[in-house]
Design a protein that fits this description.
heterodimer; A: 254 residues; alpha/beta; Rossmann fold; six-stranded mixed β-sheet; four-stranded antiparallel β-sheet; 10 helices; globular; B: 338 residues; two-stranded antiparallel sheet; 16 helices; disordered C terminus; binds adenosine-5'-triphosphate; binds magnesium ion
């Protein structure tokens, strides 16, 4: 059963076809990599699936529901969590507070119960804090909990964003270049972290990544995008030997 | 006693001392001092309401004079023309300001920044015209004097003005407490998230529109409370009390105190009330007050970008840093901050 089904997705920016009839499926529980040269349309796929861009054409079904008609804030409670290529953290909050914001959907409360600190509200807040601290430990960030988010290294901020996304208890996690700015050793560690997060939280993961070592070692399936089109799809080993893929990468390198 | 409770006691100490001093003030200060502090409480609640919307949620408003005016006029009309008590006028003042705030919050969903500031300014420009149009009912430009005052319960045997002072102090303290609770809750984090990074706010599932309208309505309702406090204090309302200049002054107070902080509005209110009081005594022509404000704002932008509360916080941090260092006997690993 596919958790995510993308069919004939088309997205234009003026004359630019960022996406040109993209179709693919993501099986529940799998870890799928979405790769391709710069400007291929990977982030655009994420933006359509998370409701930030409205595609000109096509269908996005999540758990059998057409989600393109939903407002973007409704997607988190449906079970879609994501991180951003260029980070979208809250710079004036602490690391812990950033993660707590991720718990917004499971921690719905009205202004009045917040204002008078209703016992139920306090209990929810305590539970959310405990869960956020657990997640920070899972990502080895617990020692930074009370630091302001601004000023931390890029790789650390990327991990904080992952913690924030997992805090919303998503069924599917979209990771946009989580390894960017990491050292070699850190990339290996990240691969392990992503796998253990998937197992511990029952996640389906879609990973956009330029770091091929990471992609090849942890993905169940690789989808290759070039100029807004899917040019290959299959097991990591199959895809890396595909002539079309080699040409696409060499073409951009030339 | 562990260090956390110790720290929270130390943190609560200045607040407790301040509150005790304020509660005791009527026994020490003369009538002018008490009346001055009442004006400070009105201003504090007004700046708090603006800070909730603009400082914490990032929605600028030059329309708060109108929300305060609505609360003040609703109270004055209910008490003077319809013979209501001040207490029964309070929910009406809050409700009217809050409903108008909710309605004003809807267009604010579509527009942001400068344009939103202009739309709220239109509200502030229109509001003083309304009582003028309805002169028979409101007294027009001459204003409306309220003969009745907020009376102390006879059983207490205290002067009415002292009672009014304590009521206003209590309401200001309550407003501060409720706003603090909201800011520290999931709702407050959602507000700040929208202010600083609204794309991410959407993706973590915050209903940005609903939060923005709620905050607009809540902020306007609190401004309505400030309006009620205004009428209790002055027993007089006139269109000139709620011009767009009042809104601009509140923005100034918020910036001086430190926008998006809890303590900022209190400092802003002290500034807004006492600076115009003190300047003539220093021999400054009162007409130059706006110029003095301007110079102070520029100095502040350069030397205290976090406002007075930001400056105070870094001072406290520096002092406590010094005491902490004194207490440390073993060398501490330094953080690599490169
Ligand atoms: N908001 C936008 N406005 C205009 N053009 C856009 C916008 N977003 C994406 N594009 C264009 O769409 C195309 C695909 O961009 P996208 O960001 O999806 O690529 P990508 O595969 O994520 O690339 P990278 O690896 O560099 O992150 C590019 O040509 C890009 O310039
Ligand atoms: Mg991208």
């Amino acid at each position: 059963m596919n958790l995510l089904d993308v069919r004939d997705l088309t997205l234009r920016f003026g004359g630019v076809r960022a996406l040109d009839g993209v179709s693919f499926g993501v099986a529940e529980g799998s870890l799928v990599a979405l790769v391709g040269p710069n400007g291929a349309g990977k982030s655009s796929v994420f933006n359509c699936v998370s409701g930030l861009y409205r595609p000109n054409d096509g269908v996005v079904e999540f758990a059998g529901e057409n989600i393109l008609t939903l407002p973007s804030h409704a997607l988190a409670s449906r079970g879609i969590g994501r991180t951003f290529q260029n980070l979208a953290l809250f710079p004036r909050m602490t690391v812990l507070e950033n993660v707590l914001v991720g718990g917004h959907t499971s921690h719905r409360s009205n202004v009045l119960s917040c204002a008078v600190r209703w016992p139920g509200e306090r209990r929810r807040e305590r539970a959310a804090r405990a869960r956020a601290l657990d997640l920070l430990s899972e990502l080895r960030l617990a020692h930074l909990a009370d630091m302001p988010a601004s000023g931390l290294p890029f790789g650390t901020l990327k991990r904080i964003e992952i913690a924030r996304a997992v805090m919303s208890e998503p069924r599917m996690l979209l990771l946009d270049e989580p390894a960017a700015g990491l050292t070699h050793g850190e990339v290996d560690e990240l691969g392990g972290t992503i796998q253990s997060l998937r197992d511990a939280h029952g996640l389906t993961v879609v990973l956009v990544e330029h770091h091929m070592g990471l992609v090849m070692s942890i993905s169940d399936k690789v989808i290759v995008l070039n100029l807004g089109k899917v040019i290959a799809e299959g097991l990591p080993a199959e895809v890396s030997n595909d002539p079309a893929v080699v040409a696409a990468y060499l073409g951009t390198a030339a | 006693m562990n260090t956390t409770t110790q720290r929270s006691i130390i943190r609560a100490l200045p607040w407790t001392v301040g509150l005790v001093l304020l509660v005791g003030a009527p026994f020490v200060l003369g009538l002018t001092g008490i009346r001055g502090l009442m004006q400070v409480f009105v201003l504090a609640v007004a700046v708090m309401s603006l800070n909730l919307l603009t400082g914490f949620n990032g929605q600028p408003s030059i329309g708060h004079s109108a929300f305060i005016g609505l609360g003040a006029y609703a109270t004055a009309l209910a008490v003077q023309n319809y013979g209501w008590s001040y207490w029964s006028a309070l929910p009406i003042a809050v409700l009217i300001a809050g409903v108008v705030g909710a309605v004003a919050g809807v267009p604010a969903l579509r527009i942001r920044g400068m344009n939103l500031a202009l739309v709220t300014m239109a509200l502030a420009l229109v509001f003083p015209q309304v009582p003028v149009r309805l002169t028979e009912w409101t007294g027009g430009t001459a204003g409306l004097t309220v003969d009745e005052r907020l009376r102390a319960p006879a059983a207490l045997g205290v002067a009415d003005v002292a009672w009014q002072y304590w009521v206003l102090l209590g309401i200001a303290a309550l407003a501060f407490l409720l706003i603090r609770n909201v800011v520290h809750s999931s709702m407050g984090r959602a507000m700040i998230a929208i202010r600083d990074q609204h794309v991410a706010a959407h993706t973590v599932g915050i209903n940005v529109r609903a939060v923005k309208v709620t905050v607009f309505a809540g902020s306007a309702a609190i401004a309505g409370v400030a309006g009620w406090m205004f009428t209790v204090t002055n027993q007089f309302v006139s269109p000139g009390d709620f011009t767009v200049l009042v809104s601009i002054n509140l923005l100034l107070g918020m910036a001086v105190g430190g926008s998006g902080t809890l303590v900022g509005p209190l400092m802003g209110a002290l500034f807004l009330y006492y600076v115009p009081e003190v300047l003539p005594k220093l021999g400054v022509n009162p007409q130059l007050t706006p110029a003095v404000y301007g110079v102070l704002l520029i100095l502040l932008a350069f030397f205290l970008p976090g406002g007075l509360s930001g400056g105070l916080r870094s001072l406290v941090r520096r002092l406590s840093g010094i005491t902490a260092k004194k207490g440390v006997t073993t060398p501490q690993p330094t953080l690599d901050t490169t």
